[in-house]
Design a protein that fits this description.
The chain is mainly α. It is built from two helices and no strands.
């Protein structure tokens, strides 16, 4: 076994939150986003999942 270090964005930073907002705003006006979300909803198999 050996240790593995993974660097990830700091989700507590204001810059991270701003980038999330920026990307969400881009998706909100993307003409393909609704089509993609509809496809995911149709393809997903949630049998056996609990609420």
């Amino acid at each position: 076994m050996r240790p593995v270090q993974i660097w990830v964005p700091d989700t507590r930073s204001a810059q991270f939150a701003a980038e999330c907002r920026r990307q969400s705003a881009l998706l909100a006006v993307d003409p393909h986003e609704r089509e993609t979300l509809d496809w995911i909803e149709q393809a997903i198999d949630t049998d056996g999942w609990t609420a």
